[in-house]
Queue: 3 jobs
Job 1
Amino acid sequence: MKKFFGLSLLLAVLLSACKSDPKKEEIEVSDKAETSKEKMLQLNSATIQSNQFEVCKENECPKVQLDYLVAKGENAEKINEQNESYLIEIFNSTPDSTSVLTLEEAAEKFIEDYFKFKNEFPESPATYEAEISQEELVKNDSLLTYKTKFYLFTGGAHGYGATRFLNFNPKNGERLSNADLFSDEKAFTDYAEKKFREKFKITSENINSKGFFFEDDTYKLPENIAITEDEVLLIYNPYEAASYSEGQLELILNKNEVQQFLNY
């Protein structure tokens, strides 16, 4: 009897040890969900304005409005570094631009250049202006695309504005080149040229017969290409394929018609 009681007691202890603790399980599930959420790539907005700089609190500054994306989560640091360098390059196209490390430094340098200009030409009515806006265009497991619109004015007859696409592989944070977007770039280019000729009614063999600027009279894909769920967007910014007065040229292709040439 004592032996039976001892075995029963041992079995009860073992069963008790194996029994799950619901509270502990809930904590473990919660921790896993929190870790997964932290790894998930999220995009937030950040802003830099001229009124945040000390010099602009006592002086009339040029308009600076920079609204851009900041990633958080897996590979965010690499994406943010590349995006910031990309945005700084916009300012490096201005006169007397110098190398800076952050977007805030680029904005501050832009303001300093404005005051130098005003000191040299105090009677000039011209002002400077810098605007950047950035938004998420595509975000899925294999592709992340930022759409950036900007406008810079540093005197002269007119400023310069453009639309640009920045493509990333979210799995490793690497920036994608245009060539990375295609499985068959040659076939895609041939198809795009056909659609470009149709849109702009180019019947001549000479693609520049309507005033375009293609080098060696040979069609070329634009620098800015984006692949959305349903479309492939091709953007030719001013001076890229035509004069400034022609503005931005767009060619939008149905994705279903070119899917066989794409990697995404």
Job 2
Amino acid sequence: MNQTSKSAITALAISFVFVACNNEEKKAEPSSADSTQATTPKTDTTMQNPDLDATKVAPGLYTVAKDTMGIRVLNVLYKPGDSSAMHSHPDNVLYVIEGGKTEFTGKDGSKQVLDFKPGFSAIGGSETHSVKNIGKTTVKAILIEVNRPNSAAMTLDPKMDATKVSPNLYKLLADSLNIRLLMATYKPGASSAMHFHPDNVIYVISGTKAEFTGKDGTKQTMDMNDGMIAVMPSATHSVKNVGNKTTKVLVVEINRPQK
């Protein structure tokens, strides 16, 4: 489902302005959210009011999984009937693990209901709101907050772009606000060409054992367990699935300088 909205659409504790992959504007359909979308660029608003920190005002709903390098990853869990106090997020990325129906209230009092599907992902600009699960299922997601200025940290070499050198393994889902979402899918035995990632976050959807080879030829084997979250510095490497099952990993590339 490709969507564009000229007003901010609140989505699981972040507000999204949807952009179709082909850049053709379409009328927003706020009743359902089941596909990967990206935002249009917004003013840099990386500074966050600590009094509106989701983990402080709603600690039972938002918990910190990782916090390093100007990147914070939150586990989000809303059971049916759960609701949060008003809170804010800087520019961010959302990935929905378990979907459901949620009601969002903006700081101006406006309300919107969205029905999220598992696998929904999006890049979103900063937003302040409260959230309530008005459905019958638990909503589970990860939210990646980017506390970095919205400017490119480096000029990326397209010859080292994972989606270009190994397009059968890396698919581009969204690209906005100097953030890219990639889905990496490696079948057993599959291997990539040497490629580069800027600072990034990985979320392992389905895991296996992977072998990483650095540009100096060093090798490292890693167990990629289901649900694993890691914040990684920029690196050049190739990857091979040395396990016995297909692995699927969400890769969030953040090409922004640290403060």
Job 3
Amino acid sequence: MYSASSTPSRTPSKAVVYKDDTKNSNIFFISRVNFNYETVRHKNKLFEDEFIDYINNTKDSLTLKKQQWQSTFSEDKGMGTKSQLIEQVKLAEKKQKDDLAIKEKEKRDISKLQTEISEKKYKKEMIKECINTWKNQIENLKKDIQKRRDANMAKQQALQLQLSKNEPELKRYADKLAFAMVGLRENVITFSFTCIYEKDLSRPCKFTIQLGEERHSIYKILECSPPIEHLDEILSQLNTNRNFFTFLKKMRQAFYRYAQNDK
């Protein structure tokens, strides 16, 4: 370290004082003092070297302290930055997980909606198909009903025509066999015979027969009062030969035999 040195010593010399008597002047002159300049320069050089060393040492000390401070500051700053980075990474990971969860939920919702849409489309197609089927069935039913109406109308017209032709003959049969006919409903007729019982000519004997809808359909006896013998045989002959007048005669004869046995 620099320390102040003593003042450079001077080589002792004598000062010569003299008076200028040339012009009777009172001016005094002091002679020049001689110094040892080499010694002064040497000591000055030593002083400068020591001072420069002091400056350099001070600068080195300051530089070292600055480096230590910068290192400490960098470590603290680095630790802070690292903590911030870790926190940011954690936040980013959390946000990524949340985004993935949201996307998965959206995918599930979209899949559910697509399934519901597909089911509704399928149901819509099924309903549409059912509606078309029902429309076709309704149209077919309408056509079938119309055909049946036309067929019934044709039958009624044919029956009316046949009745108009058979009415005189039936009237003759009724007068001859003493019976009356009553239509209960379509294709069902009740025949009532009188003049069977000798003691009570007005007492009726009757049966109800169902006529077939078709030309060669089977006749059926629905009711017979009083019950007579061989009814099934008489009905079978009617279904075989289709001779209704003969059937009426046999029915009257069967009722008459029953009345004779009932005396």
